[in-house]
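Ticket #4471: complex job returned nothing on first submit. Input attached below:
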Amino acid sequence: MRIREQDFTKLLVRPVVVITTISKNGVPNAAPFSFNSPISFEPPLYGFASSPEHDTWRNVRETGEFVANVVGEDFGELMHILETDFPYEVSEIEKAGLTAMPSACVKPPRIREALAWIECKLEASYELGDHVWVVGRVVCAEVKDEFWDAVLNAERAKPLCHISGEFFACDARRRRFKRAR
Ligand SMILES: Cc1cc2nc3c(=O)[nH]c(=O)nc-3n(C[C@H](O)[C@H](O)[C@H](O)COP(=O)(O)O)c2cc1C
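Support reply: We reran it on our side without changes. The output follows.
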């Protein structure tokens, strides 16, 4: 079936991260993003695409730091709260009943209930189409021990993945496709 070009994003299942930032006045902000990807191993670079109007982008632009909180299916029900456009100085972390905890290397907090945390300092940004591609240099990456088993233990971690709008993909399972010798 041929679909509208604009609907191509609905063909790609993407992990959900909740990006935490802080305003210049120190107020934390949290919002879900699924347009996101690793970019480089060395140096370790990670990127996400933000609408230029989002408080997340404003905070990253003004303070230069963010945390990508990798989240599980238990965050599914919280998506609608976290994506609500609360006034600039209101913390979505509190509104969603989540817990802020200090990060290791950057000022924006981590969300304690996340599976893993990717702490970043702003490396570059590009206005592309109707989004800004925000590139962060990864300065610290940490995962809860129970979800690490050489790679993310997907069966235990149950990462939340997004398709489009209210549609998500769940129940990730690891499979290893070994190279033929
Ligand atoms: C699952 C999910 C994924 C989202 N992904 C993105 C995204 O990749 N880029 C984007 O600009 N907005 C995305 N949004 C919308 C923002 O999270 C939403 O507009 C939010 O209010 C922005 O918050 P902020 O203004 O505090 O930064 C997504 C929302 C949901 C629920």
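DSSP finds four helices and 14 strands in the chain. Closing as resolved unless it happens again.
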